[in-house]
Amino acid sequence: MAAVEPLTVLSRWYLYAIHGYFCEVMFTAAWEFVVNFNWKFPGVTSVWALFIYGTSILIIERMYLHLKDRCHILIRCLIYTLWTYTWEFLTGFILLQFNACPWDYTDFDYDFMGLITLEYCLPWFCASFIVEQLVIRNTLRLRFDEKTDPAAAVETTGTANGYIKND
């Protein structure tokens, strides 16, 4: 039987980065629709989001592995939300020094320096729940099969009804 190994840290970081990037684009598209009724759904983000989300979710993964048997999921999600605010503030503050911060919350009622806003507390909390329960847990289950030759993949023939028949 071929040896299977867990994904590397870099592979997991990449998946987390892509997940965060995609969610950011979808959130901004939905926000644009709800606020401005824009049926084009223009979602936007910054290339910095790849680093920000990939690194943050990788750190949340470490927290999850450390806390999963020690505290209830609601407490973990509260911790993840506090981490998210801390990380958003730190990365935003650093990017602000280079005039590169892609977000600005100064128009929100409960913002701090335009870098974070308490009005996103519930969305961040819900996102942390989804990240733990769906993204991190499933990513940690993924494995590389080092010995499988992709060129020797099993050939399948499709049928007219859309089902695949393996011989």
Written overview of the protein:
With 167 residues, the protein is mostly helical. The chain has one domain. The protein contains 4 helices and 6 strands, in the order βαααββαβββ. Strands 1-4 form a two-stranded antiparallel sheet. Strands 2-3 form a two-stranded antiparallel sheet. Strands 5-6 form a two-stranded antiparallel ribbon. The mean pLDDT is 91.
The side-by-side strand order for the widest beta sheet comes to 1-4
* First-to-last CA distance: 21 Å
If helices are DSSP runs of H or I spanning 4 or more residues, what is the number of helices? 4
Helix content class: 55-70%
Number of domains: 1
Q: What order do the SSEs take from the amino end to the carboxyl end, as H and E?
A: EHHHEEHEEE
The residue-averaged pLDDT reads 91
Which percent range describes the beta-strand content? 5-15%
- Taking Cα atoms only, what radius of gyration do you get, to the nearest Å? 20 Å
Task: Tell me the total number of β-strands.
Answer: 6
- Which segments are poorly predicted (pLDDT under 50) over 5 or more consecutive residues? none
Gross morphology? globular
Largest sheet: 2 strands, antiparallel
Structural class: mainly alpha
Briefly characterize the structure.
The protein has 167 residues and is mostly helical. It has helices spanning 9-36, 48-67, 73-97, 121-141; strands at 4-6, 111-112, 116-117, 143-145, 157-158, 164-165. The model has no long low-confidence stretch (mean pLDDT 91).
